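Q: Give me the 3D complex with arginine.
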Amino acid sequence: MQILSLIRDRFEKALTGLVVDPASHTQRITVARDSRHGDYQANIAMSLKAEMGLPPQQIAAEIVARLQIDDICLPPEIAGPGFINLKLRDDFLATQVTLSATDSRFGVEAIVPRRYVIDYSAPNVAKPMHVGHIRSTVIGDALVRILRFLGHRVVSDNHLGDWGTQFGMIIYGYKNFVNENGFAENPVAELSRLYRLVQQVIGYQDAYPKLAKAEAAVLDAQQLYQAANAKAASDPKAKAGAKQAAKSLRAAEELLESLQQKVSAIESEPALEAIAQNHQNLEQKVQFETAKLHAGDTTNLELWNKFLPISISEIDSVYRRLNINFDYTYGESFYHEMLEPLVSKLVVAGMAVESEGATCIFLPGFEAPMIVRKRDGAFLYATTDLATIEYRMQHFQPDVILYVVDHRQGEHFSKLFAAAKAIGYENVDLQHISFGTVLGSDGKPFKTRSGSVIGLEYLLDEAVDRAYQAVCDPQRLQKAGLNMPEEEKRHIANTVGLGAIKFADLSHNRTSDYEFNTEKMVQLEGNTSAYIQYMYARAQSIMKKSDSQISRESVAGYSVIFAESAERDLVLQLLQFEDALHQSVEAYYPSVLASYLYSVAKQFAVFFDQCPVLIASTEQLKRSRLAICFSTSEVLRLGLSLLGIGTVDRM
Ligand code: ARG
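A: Here is the predicted complex, encoded as structure tokens.
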């Protein structure tokens, strides 16, 4: 049941014959901000003033006269300058809610399907994973679930970074520094040690020659800062300059500090220092190994084949725990063989041209072209992405491709999309579903504890532990009268903890940054999945305690009546489920669904507080309230499942 579109349809009919473009006005019908003005509000008449040449109140009266909506609403009211206020009929709400509850989709209708490819998660394997990878994974997974539920045809594809320089790094590391026993014992750990070792040495060799200049820059900045401060002391207008100088000084100091850290990490360990001395220009050496791999060198390919499953096993265990599944995992390596033919084809067609030795696609509106082959013959990230579009168009014929990737790649995607258009892919809607950064409590990008091999797994464990403490605290369970075996407690902690990681991410507007805090995210109060799961469990527990066996099959026999406003408010919200789903994929913001579920849970808490169920004053009222509990739990369970989050029957 999409109430909003139902109302909009009725208005469209009423406007037909009255105005030029009826459909263009119905977006101005929304949920009423203030429930005293009804449930929905049409803010249409004012904007028709020019077109119809009448005072808005008169226009509103005209629309209302033509509107056929009395099967859904009470007679519409015209307020203020020409708002049309709508209140849904109680009998309409009551019938619809039980009807929806009899359906396993809570009445959500399948729509005209579109074909989607969703490109998400896509970590660069063989590098330690970090919390940023959660965002793409969790947002992408929620979009897959919601779009599929609505009836779209969705192909999910994990565009794994499995062909990049990181493999050159571990190949070089393995050839030169492997600890055979360590590798035999724990290959994942040994490979990440090798990765970090090579990265550290490269970092050192890059930083060392920059030190002197950075030190001088700090001294300069200090002088400027002192001078600016002295000036500001006598001249208030110079304050801004002093502030700016302080900022520059801080930036110079931070740069110096980060260089010093890279240098001292190596110089404080003689063994590392020896490696840095004996392996000069390590970055080039690594690039050479990568190039050899790409050119099909047997040894390097063998090593790559040996390392890839090891690297993937790490991320796979995270996917398993988070219940994330992909239709395809065509990593970058999958497209390798397609790059040369693609570039040649583009050159022959005149779409790509040689420029300063490189092969480029020039794009209208962009200063720099998109390079598809470097001067040394190497292909790029962008080349692979173009080949990927070609492959997807041939094999999946998508109407839309969504790329759930961090905002820093915005430039890459705008170029890629322009290039795809330029080479003839005009009928596919390519969208970068960008997202912000995960922050630590210091407001800086979140860092997993350095030294931990598997940053992500560690965070999942931590969230589950914290969920256990928050929810399975013996005192709390005793007070709630819940006596359960350890196994059930573990299951609850797992469902709450892993759900919390997802919800903390999904409840924030994806384009904003958010603070990662496992302690806050598992709390039973506030905008958390634990709170929503708890409300679900409460609804379940009331139903269990009642003597009547309410179920999807029997709920049709429980008619709903409204004795308190809390009942009506809740039912109205439940019936907005389908609207919330559509709104959450309109611009691909799962946060819309997350905040909808939170409002339902809050509204259920009000209902729970004000409307006794098991001891309701009449049997009829009790049955009605049971039906409301049942409907709420259906919406919460379904809604959470579309965010990839589970529920438990008691907690
Ligand atoms: N592996 C890339 C990274 O970690 C993300 C890939 C996103 N997908 C794509 N088709 N480019 O930065």
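A quick observation: The radius of gyration is 30 Å.
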